[in-house]
């Protein structure tokens, strides 16, 4: 394949997609640490509603257990610690008789010490001293707890970061995607050959000193004939590919397979609430076969893969789980709040003119929509949203954005991907109409049930 970029130089040879994905993500997390949160937000980075739903679910499960059973929870891939902090807040609040929270041991596990350092500095989590600990553990490693000891395992958006191979079926044969990283040498300060060695060796201490380069990488792609017989759960993968149409790139999240095996081994055989994971990807075979759907994304150089949830469910059964629940994440949280909900971002994306707007005008619309919602929305937490302007924003819009940010409520919607309910949106229909939203735009926002890529919940017991 020809990339069409003659000025680009290679950072390494073609290798299966999972090899380079794992390598570049190791560099991403190892060099940026807590700074990763400048590149993306998740549904748990600042919001509380998913955490509260999880806490309510776990509390109900614990009420069915004998009081002498220890409650050991592990979270794999911990972000900024907000999910754990808000879950513990909620558990403490609803445990009025002190039957659950005081005997809970919650361990936040991550393979990056940089990330754990950021979590340990989280003051909201520090409020629960004695109930939690941190551990430098890779979710794919077999170690981490005594087999059969854990009550619950949960993770949020880690499967998309883990090793993922990509298959295409064509005329009865399987082909695997290979990647090669390329970059313009001018991006790198200093000797380019020396940098290539540092990149290939993942020399994190030295790579931290370089100006940002990960988001400058261009990925060349090629496909080679393959046999999945020696892959993890190769027989399951082979069977799965029979349901996939020709020429559809299909993620095979082999790294996630390892987390399922590990969870099955560590969870208590009778008392566990299972392994609950949240991520974004394809919910059904029909979504897998949707022509043109994405199968990877880049965030500031981080290489993430869409999660093949039907295949994870099939692997979970093969790994020994007998009960499997798979649904949209919105449905899970909405059931907890007893009404439909969406993210603020989804509402803005359904504005009739958003596709015609310059990026800075979309920022203005986002902030004006926030202000409208904040006349009704009240968060149980105090926070002030940080909303930096995009490079190249004209002076007029830059000044307007700064003023809008200054006026944001500290008890308002905490994040652009925070959940808002239908009643909260309906309560501010009049100011939303003034911003150009129509009734059909709001209705469409709450009826996006067939998108090829969705945030999903998978629970295995």
Automatic annotation (TrEMBL):
It comes from the Bacteria. This is Uncharacterized protein. It comes from Nitrospina gracilis (strain 3/211).
